[in-house]
Design the sequence.
């Protein structure tokens, strides 16, 4: 059964992980779709923003500056790098106008977010006859920033790519004569935009899906946890019931067997003709009958919860009461090596308790100390008055209780075992009944214990002035 539960738990965890992975994959795909749709919408909103007279004018000025620099290069007056360097300051001077115009145009579109823009030159190539002269190429690692605002590469979203050709006409002095020269120029540019806070916007659009997915996952996890916990609890209850049935069967076998032997003995003529033997046999029947009744009463009475226990409280002087309880207990264990040290509160305190019930609770704790004690049992019984609380402490020098067992010690039918073997007889009801009696008195019972160092039970009762 345990192996089946472990297999079920492992299978459930694997299934949950698979479900989580699929859900994460679907959320990621939804995120990509939302992102792409949002970017397409933004591009559509600003796709014709540079098709205006103002932008054409800036473009003509930019082309003029570029042509002048390239003409000087072709005349061998400057190098390629110098051509680019002389061209860049002129375009920078136009950038303020471009940014101002672009921001005004973005504002007129009534978007709910800000956008940054920039235009980068990717290559400039001059074609002369069949020759190709590359003035600049971004593939070489250089980058010529033309218009717009600067932002990091990771924030770039490609708006558009452009490749345009134009003619470059200039006069060149060759061998003392001026010659008109016409060249073809290819310029490639890429427009980038940076949508400020686009991740936040996309995530906000996905918030409903994300929240529902998380809640659904939490629901599945909770349902799985609840199911497995109930399964384990049911198995535990089944084991406890089986253990209880085995224990009660074992406890009933001895008196029943004795009753059977005694009843058969009474049919024998020699027993019937011997008064002493007949009387002894009847005593055996009485004792075993009483034992059976006590076993049944223990099962019925000790199974009651605190709310089912009806108390008949009375005012009892603490010192007298506890001394009598300890004397009765000492008589019951006189055949064992048990020593008791008692330290009762020096002030007179009257307790409002059900004498019979509370005595049963104390004796259950004391009996446990002897059952699980060492060869020589040493008990220390102390009581304290602390403000409006009365504490009863019972310490033993027994084998102690492991920490993981302490949480279960007051559960119904629970018995401490070594492995799968219960070394001490019992039904697992004594400490449960003790805790219920104390709760019925509006008190608490706790324990402190360490293996081989003994156990201390502390019962706390309220004092009603």
Sequence:
């Amino acid at each position: 059964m345990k192996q089946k539960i472990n297999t079920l738990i492992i299978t459930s965890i694997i299934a949950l992980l698979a479900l989580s992975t699929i859900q994460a994959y679907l959320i990621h795909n939804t995120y990509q779709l939302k992102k792409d749709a949002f970017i397409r919408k933004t591009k559509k909103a600003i796709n014709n923003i540079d098709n205006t007279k103002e932008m054409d004018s800036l473009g003509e000025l930019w082309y003029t500056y570029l042509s002048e620099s390239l003409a000087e290069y072709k005349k061998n007056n400057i190098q390629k790098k110098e051509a680019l360097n002389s061209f860049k300051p002129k375009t920078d001077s136009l950038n303020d106008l471009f940014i101002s115009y672009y921001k005004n145009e973005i504002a007129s579109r009534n978007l709910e977010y800000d956008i940054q823009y920039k235009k980068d030159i990717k290559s400039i190539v001059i074609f002369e006859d069949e020759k190709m002269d590359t003035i600049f190429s971004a593939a070489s690692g250089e980058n010529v920033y033309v218009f717009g605002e600067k932002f990091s590469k990771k924030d770039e979203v490609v708006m558009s790519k452009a490749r345009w050709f134009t003619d470059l006409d200039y006069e060149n002095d060759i061998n003392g004569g001026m010659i008109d020269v016409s060249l073809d120029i290819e310029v490639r540019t890429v427009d980038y935009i940076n949508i400020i806070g686009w991740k936040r916007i996309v995530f906000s659009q996905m918030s409903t899906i994300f929240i529902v997915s998380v809640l659904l996952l939490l629901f599945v996890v909770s349902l799985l946890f609840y199911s497995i916990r109930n399964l384990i609890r049911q198995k535990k209850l089944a084991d406890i019931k089986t253990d209880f049935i085995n224990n009660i069967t074992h406890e009933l076998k001895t008196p029943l067997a004795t009753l059977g032997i005694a009843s058969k003995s009474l049919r024998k003529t020699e027993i019937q003709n011997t008064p002493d033997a007949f009387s002894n046999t009847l005593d055996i029947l009485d004792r075993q009958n009483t034992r059976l009744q006590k076993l049944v009463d223990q099962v019925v009475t000790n199974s009651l919860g605190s709310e089912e226990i009806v108390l008949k409280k009375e005012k009892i002087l603490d010192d007298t009461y506890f001394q009598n309880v300890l004397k009765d207990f000492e008589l019951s264990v006189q055949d064992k090596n048990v020593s008791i040290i008692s330290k009762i509160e020096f002030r007179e305190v009257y307790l409002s308790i059900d004498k019979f019930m509370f005595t049963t609770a104390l004796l259950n704790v004391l009996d446990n100390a002897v059952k699980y004690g060492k060869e020589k049992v040493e008990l220390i019984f102390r009581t304290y008055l602390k403000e409006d609380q009365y504490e009863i402490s019972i310490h033993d020098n027994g084998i102690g209780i492991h920490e993981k067992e302490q949480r279960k010690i007051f559960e119904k039918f629970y018995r401490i075992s070594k492995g799968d073997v219960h070394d001490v007889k019992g039904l697992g009801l004594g400490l449960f009944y003790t805790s219920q009696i104390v709760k019925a008195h509006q008190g608490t019972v706790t324990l402190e214990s360490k293996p081989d160092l003994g156990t201390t039970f502390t019962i706390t009762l309220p004092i009603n002035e």
